[in-house]
């Protein structure tokens, strides 16, 4: 299943368009996002003088905890994890410290030092250790991951980041998928948005926040819902803030259009940029399959630097290349939740649940169901939320994870005494 990322289509046709009313506003509105006066999504009274770009009615505001623990630790404090690298022989089993029993597992599952592996005699298991070396020291029987990969950190209680907006619920709008709010490391990011049914073209506009207010950088027309950064345009400036907006048109000349809400992001700069580039380069230099590199970046590196757009792009590229695993889709759902992209999150979690069932991966199924339930609950689909969260609860009970059970009950609004009745 290919999702959101039409990279298998022809190269998008793009053309520069001349300056137009879409690229500016009357004088006296300095510091505000330049938008057309006729844009129905942004009535004049919704604009603020404090550089606030969004009328509050466009979003459901909420405080949402990300489901995978967007660790806010600094880079040195975020220790690498081990991963199941390969299995030759019979199926192996995993028991995490918070589980009550062993369950089947498979590469490239991330492992903690206090996880237990159960391996049948004659089965050869290799792990990718935190120091990025491969170990085949997993013995038959039951053993700790830390035995084969000394120094693997134990499972930590995560510190969660917070998303305060939901978007991407209206399929008739070309809402931005990447880059979403946050930072980008590359100065020429790939731009993606929701493909609108029937749209013949998209008008993509990038603006930069300057001392004189929001100023247009460039505008491009394309017939595809993904755009490589234009090679004939100046790259992003590190440390600067940018806003991206996409318009979908149904005619050769964009007279009937739907606008996406603008998305503000920044180009990473300074020492943080150098540190992120070094960490990413170290992973890319590893002699392991691309799937492992992507998952290490997505689960260990990008959260440290809040590179959420890059994580979504990498996961979409991995899926488009044929690596359609429950883990990849579940992580895409987690990143979409962190970015407030409701439809992307829902579609990703649904696919993750399906693939986890097919592969008999209970942990991934439960995590995906939990994420899907949270999306439903926080976007007003209460009945669907209760149904899927109850399924997640049943799976978490089978795992024996009391912490996860408590989190699901908290989302359901159920306390322990109510559950025991």
What would your notes on this structure say?
There is one protein chain. With 421 residues, the chain is an alpha+beta fold. The chain is 31% helix and 22% strand. It contains ten helices and 20 strands. The chain has helices at 145-148, 270-284, 290-305, 308-320, 326-339, 342-358, 362-378, 382-399, 402-412, 416-420; strands spanning 14-16, 60-65, 82-88, 92-95, 103-105, 110-111, 116-119, 124-128, 134-135, 141-144, 162-166, 176-178, 183-184, 191-193, 201-210, 213-222, 226-227, 241-249, 257-259, 263-267. Strands 1, 13, 15, 16, 18, 19 and 20 form a seven-stranded mixed sheet that branches. Strands 6-3-8-9 form a four-stranded antiparallel sheet, with no helix packed on it. A four-stranded antiparallel sheet has the order 5-4-7-10. Helix 4 packs antiparallel against helix 5 (326-339), helix 5 (326-339) runs parallel beside helix 7 and helix 8 (382-399) runs antiparallel to helix 9. The longest helix is centred in the C-terminal third of the chain and has 18 residues, at 382-399. The protein is globular and about 65 Å long. Residues 1-78, 157-162 and 251-257 have low confidence and may be disordered.
């Amino acid at each position: 299943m290919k999702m959101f990322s039409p990279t298998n289509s022809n190269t998008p046709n793009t053309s520069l368009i001349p300056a137009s009313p879409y690229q500016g506003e009357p004088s006296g509105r300095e510091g505000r996002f330049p938008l057309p006066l006729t844009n129905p999504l942004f009535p004049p009274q919704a604009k603020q003088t404090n550089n606030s770009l969004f009328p509050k009615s466009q979003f459901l505001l909420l405080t949402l905890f990300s489901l995978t623990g967007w660790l806010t630790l600094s880079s040195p404090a975020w220790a690498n994890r081990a991963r199941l690298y390969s299995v030759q022989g019979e199926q192996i089993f995993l028991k995490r410290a918070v589980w009550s029993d062993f369950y089947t597992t498979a590469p490239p599952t991330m492992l903690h030092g206090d996880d237990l592996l159960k391996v049948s005699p004659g089965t050869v298991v290799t792990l990718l250790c935190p120091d990025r070396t491969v170990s085949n020291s997993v013995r038959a029987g039951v053993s700790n991951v830390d035995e084969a990969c000394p120094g693997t950190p134990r499972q930590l209680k995560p510190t969660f980041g917070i998303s305060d907006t939901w978007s991407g619920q209206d399929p008739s709008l070309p809402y931005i998928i990447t880059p979403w709010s946050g930072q980008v490391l590359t100065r020429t990011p790939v731009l993606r948005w929701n493909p609108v049914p029937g749209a013949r073209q998209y008008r993509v506009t990038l603006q930069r926040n300057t001392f004189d207010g929001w100023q247009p950088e460039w505008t491009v027309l394309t017939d595809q819902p993904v755009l490589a950064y234009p090679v004939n345009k100046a790259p992003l400036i590190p440390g600067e803030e940018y806003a991206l907006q996409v318009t979908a048109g149904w005619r050769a000349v964009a007279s009937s259009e739907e606008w996406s809400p603008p998305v503000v992001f920044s180009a990473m700069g300074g020492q943080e940029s150098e540190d992120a580039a070094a960490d990413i380069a170290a992973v890319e230099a590893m002699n392991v399959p691309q799937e492992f590199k992507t998952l290490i970046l997505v689960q260990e590196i990008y959260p440290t630097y809040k590179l959420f757009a890059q994580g979504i792009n990498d996961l979409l590229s991995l899926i488009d290349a044929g690596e359609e695993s429950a883990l990849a889709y579940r992580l895409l759902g987690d990143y979409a939740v962190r970015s407030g992209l409701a439809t992307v999150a829902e579609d990703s979690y649904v696919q993750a649940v399906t693939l986890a069932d097919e592969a008999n991966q209970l942990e991934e199924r439960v995590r995906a169901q939990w994420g899907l339930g949270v999306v439903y609950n926080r976007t007003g689909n209460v009945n669907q939320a209760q149904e899927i969260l109850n399924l997640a609860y049943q799976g978490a009970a089978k795992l024996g994870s009391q912490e996860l059970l408590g989190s699901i009950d908290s989302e359901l609004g159920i306390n322990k005494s109510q559950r025991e009745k």
